[in-house]
Amino acid sequence: MSTNLEKSSDTGTLADELSGAAVTVPSGNAVGDYLRHYWQRIRGGDMGSLPAVAALVVLFLVFSIVENGFLSKANFASLITQAAPGILLAMGLVFVLLLGEIDLSAGTASGVGGAIVAVLLLKNWPWPLAVLVALVVGALIGLGIGWMRTFLRVPSFVSTLALFLGLQGVVQIVVNSANTQGNLSLQSDALVALENSNMPVWLGWLMAALLVVGYAVQKLLAVAARRKRSLPTEPVAVTAAKVLAIAVLAFGFTFVLNLNRSPNSAGGTKIVEQNGKLVTVKTGGEFLGGVPWVVPVILVLVVVLGFVLNRTRYGRHIYAVGGSDEAARRAGIRVNAVRISVFVICSTMAVVSGVVLASQTAVNAAQGAGNTLLLAVGAAVVGGTSLFGGKGKITDAVVGGAVVAVIINGMADLLQGKNNSAWQWIVTGLVLLLAATVDAVSRRRAGSTGLG
Question: How would you describe this protein's topology in the membrane (predicted)?
Answer without folding.
Answer: Multi-pass membrane protein
